[in-house]
Structure to design on (254 residues):
């Protein structure tokens, strides 16, 4: 059985999914399976995935019909995973070829590690690179993560058994942020590789692009992880200031 299971939800991703899949297949660490969940795509995504799966036996393609959303797609992938570790890669993001190798070396360095991530570089929707890099800390605990989420989902590798205990909750909140905060109730730290091994694609139609919608989702996320309404409301403004500052740095780096 593979040591790592890569989970990739894909919905109408004909423009980017092949490049994303190839960035996984080019990893210097090759003992993995890539589970792609086609979430009811209406474009050429299913055809592209069939062609890719025929070229590499490590690819498994699952199909949702109808579309069920990113949370349920990731949960389905985790349920199907055979690896000891799960790594997430969205269908518009890219990995540097040594991403898995360096995260696995980090796990060897910290035997208690159960949740790991990396720094993130950024590209625009058309693939143009940006100068801004979101750093990763050597380790980060729950209290600090409540102030700002440094864990880009496509950079995360976590133990499969822990993820099965904490499924993604649905798409009305920041579902990945919820999972990291919940896992950090069970484990003391997430460990980071401070190298931009993830290349994150910024898209204009992302759910976090709408400021008011993102604010409501953030408040719901804090409530979902157990905060009372007052504490959740008090945490929102500092987090939004962090996001605004990050977006300014991204814009200045174009």
């Amino acid at each position: 059985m593979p040591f790592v299971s890569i989970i990739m939800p894909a919905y109408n991703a004909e423009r980017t999914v092949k490049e994303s899949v190839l960035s996984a297949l080019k990893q210097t660490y090759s003992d993995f399976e890539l589970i792609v969940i086609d979430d009811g795509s209406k474009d050429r995504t299913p055809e592209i995935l069939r062609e890719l799966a025929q070229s590499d036996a490590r690819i498994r393609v699952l199909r949702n019909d109808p579309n069920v959303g990113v949370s349920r797609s990731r949960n389905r992938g985790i349920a199907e995973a055979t690896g000891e570790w799960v790594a997430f890669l969205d269908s518009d993001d890219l990995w540097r070829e040594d991403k898995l190798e360096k995260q696995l070396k980090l796990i060897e360095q910290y035997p208690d590690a159960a949740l790991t991530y990396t720094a993130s570089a950024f590209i625009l929707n058309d693939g143009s690179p940006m100068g801004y890099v979101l750093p990763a800390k050597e380790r980060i605990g729950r209290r600090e993560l409540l102030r700002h989420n440094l864990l880009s989902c496509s950079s995360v590798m976590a133990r499969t058994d822990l993820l099965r205990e904490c499924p993604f909750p649905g798409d009305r909140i920041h579902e990945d942020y919820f999972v990291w905060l919940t896992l950090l109730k069970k484990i003391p730290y997430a460990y980071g590789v401070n190298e931009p091994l993830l290349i994150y694609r910024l898209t204009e139609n992302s759910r976090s692009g709408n400021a008011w919608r993102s604010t409501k989702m953030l408040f719901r996320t804090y409530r979902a992880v157990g905060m009372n309404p007052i504490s959740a409301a008090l945490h929102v403004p500092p987090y939004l200031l962090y996001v605004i500052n990050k977006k300014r740095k991204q814009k200045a780096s174009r």
Summary: Residues 4-252 form a domain with the Spore Coat Polysaccharide Biosynthesis Protein SpsA; Chain A fold (CATH 3.90.550.10). The longest strand covers residues 190-201.
